[in-house]
Amino acid sequence: MTLYIAKPTSRKKIRDLANTLRRITGLYDEAYFPVVEFLELAMPELFKEFEYEIVPICGMPNEYGITYPEKNLISIREDVYERAIDGVERDRFTIAHEIGHFILHKPGMIELARTQTVQDIPIYKKPEWQANTFAGELLAPPQVIRGLSLEEVSSSCGVSLQVSEIQLKNMNK
Ligand SMILES: [Zn+2]
């Protein structure tokens, strides 16, 4: 069995990275992070060779988004992209998640583990955990959610109640 494992990192380090991106784009205190505009306008500015593409549903029937760090490419499925523009929480999260893969999982940041099973890999080395954590920290960081209720985090940041709960629970980590 071949698995991808990422270099170890922590929620704290991922938060610092997400907040660096918020700072350099002037969005540090912005409650509602404009993730589609960030993908379209900021990412090509920040990463020289970066490209994104919007793929028809038939071209990617089983995935909402795919990131190819070695090709400097993020592919987002058309319906996900359109719903993210409309502010649908799950689709906003998908785009933030793929941006997380792109930034965290460049070649050299990822390695193959051929003999390990999924259970042997600590959570902080798992690419999916890292990308989800990045998405949560980009969309709903502590400086924006402090003092808010679950419902307020969800509505002001445009994230699901589930993501709101994770962010509030881990705010002081
Ligand atoms: Zn993923």
Q: Your description of this structure?
A:
The chain is of the alpha+beta class. It has one domain (3-169). The chain is 49% helix and 13% strand. The chain contains eight helices and five strands, in the order E-H-H-E-E-E-H-H-E-H-H-H-H. It has a three-stranded mixed beta sheet with strand order 2-4-3. A two-stranded antiparallel sheet has the order 1-5. Helix 1 packs across helix 5 and helix 3 (78-85) crosses helix 4 (89-104). It is globular and about 40 Å long. It binds zinc ion. The site of zinc ion has 4 residues, from helix 4 and helix 5.
Largest β-sheet summary: 3 strands, mixed
Structural class: alpha+beta
What Rg is obtained from the alpha carbons, in whole angstroms?
Answer: 16 Å
Run of helices and strands: EHHEEEHHEHHHH
**How many independent structural domains?**
1
Query: Which ions and ligands are bound to the chains?
Result: zinc ion
Give unreliable regions as ranges.
none
Biggest sheet strand order reads 2-4-3
- Compute the separation of the termini in Å: 34 Å
Helix content: 40-55%
Q: Would you report the number of β strands?
A: 5
- Strand proportion: 5-15%
Q: Describe the global form.
A: globular
The number of helical runs is 8
Mean pLDDT: 91
